[in-house]
Amino acid sequence: MIPTKPHEKIKFLSDYLRSRLQTLWEPGSDIAIDECVEASIGRPADTVIIPSKPTPEGLKIWVQADGGCVLDWRFHVLGSKAKQGPQVIDRRWVRFGFCPMKALAVELAMELAKKTISFTVWMDNLFIDPQVLAFLRHHGIAAAGTMRLSVIAGEKAHQKCRKKRSSDF
């Protein structure tokens, strides 16, 4: 028997809350995409420890937030297998050459673009790279945040290896 993951146990409640929040909350012009840690009771295998977070130990959740209200989220499962990492991400983003973290940011931004007209996505260096910024800009989504200089320098080397054409966007 395959053990049930913590997020699978609350899928119904999570889906219900997400749909209600998205119908009741009118998104503003500044949207944040980031990670958070929610304290958990018990010892699930997916518990993470991130000392720099206000709640350093618990379940990692990737969130899209506006004005203190979380609009959308994806749960994180620990490990290195194919079904681990951010959950419920459309695999088409991987075909565009995005790693799971960057695919998560693109998916959350694109989902919001279906519901509102104009907004800016704010992200940290975990999600941003030149490819993500170019893709979002191509789709009319403004994005900003922090980026490491090594990512920009490494982008030239990465472009030589990338087989995707810009027309794939």
Please provide a written account of the structure.
Helices cover 34% and strands 24% of the residues. The chain starts with 5 loop residues before the first helix and ends in an 8-residue tail after the last helix. It has 169 residues and is of the alpha/beta class. Strands 1, 2, 3, 4, 5, 6 and 7 form a seven-stranded mixed β-sheet that branches. Residues 160-169 have low confidence and may be disordered. The protein has helices spanning 6-9, 11-24, 92-95, 100-113, 130-138, 149-161, and strands at 30-38, 47-49, 57-66, 69-77, 85-86, 120-123, 142-145. The longest helix is centred in the N-terminal third of the chain and has 14 residues, at 11-24. Strand 3 and strand 4 (69-77) form a beta hairpin.
Topology summary:
Layout: H1 6-9, H2 11-24, E1 30-38, E2 47-49, E3 57-66, E4 69-77, E5 85-86, H3 92-95, H4 100-113, E6 120-123, H5 130-138, E7 142-145, H6 149-161
Parallel strand pairs: 1-6, 6-7
Antiparallel strand pairs: 1-3, 2-3, 3-4, 4-5
